[in-house]
Amino acid sequence: MFRAVVRSLEGARLRPEVALSRIAAPRGLAPHAVSFAAEIGHTPHRAHDDAAAPRRAPASGRFVVLYDESCPHPWEGPFRIVSWFRSRTDPEMGRDELLTDVSWAWLTDNLVQHGALFTAEGGTASRVLERHFGSLTDRADVAQVELRASWTPVPRHGTPHWAQSHLLAWTQVLCTAAGLPPRHEGVARV
Q1: Nearest residue to 40 (alpha-carbon basis) of 16, 59, 54
Q2: Which residues contact 115 (CB under 8 A, 6 or more apart)?
Q3: Which of the residues in the chain have pLDDT under 50?
Q4: CA distance 10 to 167
Q5: Are 100 and 176 in contact (CB under 8 A)?
Q6: Sheet holding 18-23: strands in order across?
Q7: d(CA 161, CA 142)
Q8: Taking a C-beta distance cutoff of 8 angstroms, is the pair 151, 79 a contact?
Q9: pLDDT at position 189, please?
Q10: What is the pLDDT of residue 184?
Q11: Which pLDDT belongs to residue 182?
C-alpha cells in the first residue's frame, strides 16, 4: 500500500511554479516514510541587489508521508503527514497579528477545497519581522511566516490517489503564501 502512495505522489501534476523533488526521508519516525522538498519560483535579481546574496525562493517547505500499519494512537490511522513551510511576505503583512491564524486557515481550507479528508490535525504558525539597524539600515525590512503542521489523512478506500489531494492542497498553500493567485483546472489566466 505504501509503495502505491509513493507512486501516486511522484505522479502528481503540480502547478508549473512548483519545483518538487524527493529527498531523504527522516528516520525513526515510522517504519516507512517518503519526503519531498518544494520551492515556489525564484525572485529575479535586481541591479541594486547584493550580487553576493543567494537567491531565495519566496516560499519553500517539506512534505513527509509516514506509514505505520500499527496505527499509533495519536495518529488515528496508519498514515501521518508532516509538513513545514516558510515564506517571505510583505513587511506590512508580517506586522499583522492575524497572519498566523490566516496561514493555518490556508492549510485547512486548501485541504477541504482539494477534497483531502483529514483528522487529528495539529501544528504551529509563527511570523518573524526583521528590522535592520546600524550599518544595515539601508536594507529593507523582511517578514516571514512559517507553518509546521501534521495531520492524519483519511484515505478513500481502493485508491492511493488520496495522497495527491493532500500534496496538491499543500503546494497550493505554498503558492498562496508566495503571493501567487489561485489556479483552477481548465481556466486560462488573462
Answers
A1: 59
A2: 165
A3: 43-54
A4: 10
A5: no
A6: 18-23, 32-40, 59-67, 79-89, 142-153, 118-130
A7: 38
A8: no
A9: 56
A10: 64
A11: 80
Strands 18-23 and 79-89: unpaired
- 118 beta partners: 153
| Beta bridge pairs of residue 149 | 83, 123
Q: Which amino acid is at 46?
A: R
SS3 for 153-166 is ECCCCCCCCHHHHH
Which cell goes with 9? 505522489
By CB atoms closer than 10 A (0-12, 13-18, 19+), residue 107 is buried
22: its cell numbers: 524527493
What is d(CA 69, CA 160) in angstroms, rounded to the nearest whole number?
Answer: 15
Quick one: pLDDT at residue 143? 92
What tens digit of pLDDT does each residue of 72-84 get?
A: 989 999 999 999 9
Contact 37, 9 (CB under 8 A): no
Phi then psi for residue 75, to 5 deg, are -75, -35
